[in-house]
């Protein structure tokens, strides 16, 4: 007998009846507050996502600031080369049309004079010299010497103008000649008020740049430097000798007879002096030769031209023992090739250290995972004990133990395995680095392997033995495959740590046991060649990512487990 109150006949509130009623009802489904259900759900999901984002925002910001930003800055520094074009703008423009053969034209010497003069005033010529010295030995001392010696060119003209009229040695006549009258009035009012507030920015008088183009350019540079960088009053500062040089060039190549503005008589008298046969001159080429004869050699000019772009591949080329030359990319001489050797040594020794940690750490992790918990915890303290000791202390201890008069050699001599005059050399070489770093990184291998081995059920091993498998077959066919994820996790951890280590190789590595990281640290802290250090770091990062990708393709990163 059928039930008269089945789901198709019962009129009460059941899920099926509610669904049918919803399907019969026209219009969207509503929430309790009358809002369409779909809209209400979307709003709730947005609020939930916003709360989740607010929770992870501090961590995300921390990662961006401390991880992403430094890497981005490193990659930028490895190609950035703006110091040459920013410090020598006129020179790089002139050298742009030079074919690199022979000596550059006189105009290049003129541009270099004004650029280096301003760089010396700003104390930037030494930084530029240091940058170019990475590519051409001797450039640093050349620019330091030039920063001191280029004053002699301008003083030739400055002394003659001052002998003609003492006003050429005063600030006010120059400002009346070059400055806008309204600006000069504001400047004098600013001085009268006790130099309070912001100093009025210098403005050239109308038409000055047409009559005295070089002088106007150099005087504007002098005025901007004096006001903005030195914070000095222009009414108290006489112009640089480079401004007098520019004045001579304008007077010798132009006509100022039609000028009738302020200080016209002084300017026209100077023009007459320049036109006289007794006026002493010196060419820019001769001036540079007198400063240093290296300016008469094409290599320095070729180097400036070669590294004038804002971005360069020179740092990366140097990182792989290549160099950028006017003829293209060339290999460095064999006696200068060091970085590829360091990269190969770093990869080789990191792999050896990783395999050493696997061989030494696997038995320890196996014993820890199969001992009773009480005994395993006690031995785990011994594994963690190195973390409570300073890295420098552990490394220095190995230096004491491995040296020729150290503990290990003394024991070998005492038991007769080694003669006293033939003690083993185990420090300041690759062997010392491998031993010390294996000891330091061994816990990083043991812990991941132990965490994985401790999750392998012992019943698997007992089941294999009950089916007739030997101890070796049980281990190799049953236990070892399940422990591979721990080996993979430990190997990645140890390899990445070792490939970037530099403290231990620096102390015990000597000349044959240092890593590429030691060279990076040297360029950052000693040679200050941050561009090359950034390029080496970028290559090291790329190598690690490539090896990580290869590991993922061969083993599978999903198989790496920490328990």
Give an overview of the whole structure.
It is a single chain. The protein has 563 residues and is mainly α. Among the domains are: 35-77, no CATH class; 167-275, no CATH class; 339-559, MetI-like fold (Orthogonal Bundle). Helices cover 66% and strands 1% of the residues. A two-stranded antiparallel sheet has the order 1-2. The relative contact order is 0.08. The mean pLDDT is 87.
Please give a handful of descriptors for the protein shown.
563 residues, mainly alpha, MetI-like fold, two-stranded antiparallel sheet, 27 helices, 2 strands, 1% strand, elongated
Please provide a brief summary of the model.
The protein has 563 residues and is mostly helical.
Chart the SSEs and their pairings.
Blueprint: H1 15-24, H2 37-77, H3 82-87, H4 89-95, H5 106-121, H6 125-133, H7 139-149, H8 151-164, H9 171-178, H10 181-192, H11 208-211, H12 213-229, H13 241-253, H14 264-275, H15 284-291, H16 298-306, H17 314-319, E1 322-325, E2 328-331, H18 339-370, H19 373-384, H20 391-402, H21 407-414, H22 430-453, H23 458-466, H24 471-499, H25 503-508, H26 516-525, H27 530-554
Antiparallel strand pairs: 1-2
């Amino acid at each position: 007998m059928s039930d008269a109150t089945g789901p198709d006949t019962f009129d009460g509130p059941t899920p099926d009846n509610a669904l049918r009623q919803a399907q019969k009802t026209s219009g969207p489904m509503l929430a309790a507050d009358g809002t369409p259900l779909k809209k209400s759900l979307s709003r709730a999901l947005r609020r939930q996502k916003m709360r989740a984002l607010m929770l992870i925002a501090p961590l995300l910001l921390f990662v961006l600031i401390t991880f992403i930003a430094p890497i981005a800055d490193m990659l930028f520094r490895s190609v950035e080369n703006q110091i040459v074009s920013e410090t020598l703008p006129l020179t790089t423009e002139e050298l742009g049309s030079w074919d690199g053969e022979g000596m550059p034209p006189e105009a290049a010497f003129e541009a270099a004079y004004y650029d280096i003069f301003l760089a010396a005033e700003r104390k930037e010529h030494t930084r530029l010299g240091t940058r170019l010295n990475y590519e051409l030995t001797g450039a640093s001392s050349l620019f330091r010497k030039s920063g001191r010696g280029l004053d002699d060119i301008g003083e030739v003209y400055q002394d003659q103008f001052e002998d003609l009229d003492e006003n050429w040695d005063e600030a006010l006549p120059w400002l009346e000649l070059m400055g806008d009258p309204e600006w000069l009035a504001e400047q004098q009012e600013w001085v009268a008020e006790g130099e309070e507030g912001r100093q009025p920015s210098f403005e050239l008088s109308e038409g000055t740049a047409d009559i005295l183009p070089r002088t106007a350019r150099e005087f504007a540079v002098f005025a901007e430097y004096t006001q903005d960088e030195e914070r000095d009053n222009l009414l108290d500062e006489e112009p640089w000798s480079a401004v007098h040089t520019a004045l001579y060039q304008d007077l010798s190549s132009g006509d100022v007879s039609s000028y009738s503005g302020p200080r016209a008589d002084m300017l026209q008298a100077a023009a007459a002096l320049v036109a006289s046969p007794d006026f002493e001159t010196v060419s820019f080429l001769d001036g540079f030769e007198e400063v240093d004869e290296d300016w008469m050699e094409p290599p320095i000019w070729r180097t400036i031209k070669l590294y004038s772009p804002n971005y360069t591949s020179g740092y990366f080329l140097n990182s792989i023992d290549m160099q950028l030359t006017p003829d293209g990319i060339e290999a460095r001489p064999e006696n200068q090739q060091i970085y590829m050797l360091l990269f190969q040594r770093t990869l080789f020794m990191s792999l050896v250290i990783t395999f050493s940690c696997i061989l030494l750490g696997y038995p320890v992790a196996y014993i820890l995972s199969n001992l009773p918990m009480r005994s395993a915890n006690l031995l785990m303290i011994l594994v963690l004990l190195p973390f409570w000791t300073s890295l420098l202390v552990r490394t220095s201890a190995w230096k004491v133990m491995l040296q020729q008069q150290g503990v290990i050699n003394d024991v070998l001599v005492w038991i007769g395995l080694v003669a006293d005059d033939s003690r083993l050399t185990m420090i300041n070489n690759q062997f010392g680095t491998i031993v010390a770093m294996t000891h330091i990184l061994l816990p990083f291998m043991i812990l991941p392997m132990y965490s994985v081995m401790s999750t392998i059920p012992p019943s698997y091993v007992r089941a294999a033995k009950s089916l007739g498998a030997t101890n070796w077959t049980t281990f190799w066919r049953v236990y070892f495959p399940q422990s591979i994820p721990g080996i993979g996790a430990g190997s990645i951890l140890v390899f990445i740590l070792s490939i970037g280590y530099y403290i231990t190789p620096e102390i015990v590595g000597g000349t044959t046991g240092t890593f590429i990281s030691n060279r990076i640290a040297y360029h950052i802290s000693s040679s200050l060649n941050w561009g090359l250090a950034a390029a080496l770091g970028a290559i090291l990062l790329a190598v690690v990512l490539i090896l990580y990708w290869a590991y993922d393709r061969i083993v599978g990163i999903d198989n790496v487990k920490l328990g």
